[in-house]
Amino acid sequence: MEHRSGLRLRLRLHVELWKGCRKLGSYLSNDIGFGGLFVEKCENVLEEGDFLLAKVTVDTVEGPQQFDMKVMVVHKSGNGAGLMRADSELAVNRALTNIMMKMAA
User: Fold this and answer.
1) 4 pLDDT exceeds 80?
2) What pLDDT sits at residue 96?
3) In a domain? residue 20
């Protein structure tokens, strides 16, 4: 069942998940968009409703670039978890726009 209806890119990015000052682990995204992302194989360390920090790393020609997204766990499955953005920070919107433009080129 689809949980998001916005634009998404099937993109494998490195994602660190943090709850407060505790690192939960390093994972890979399955897709990402302005509304959030799906992170694989993290379902065992998360609970629905958790608020987390997702540190997303994008490999660019200039080298790896990281941006932080505040997210909330909205669903879990046997494959991972759907994380909805819980912020509207301009820097994150710019980073996502840059990723999407580069992927479309």
Assistant:
1) no
2) 83
3) yes
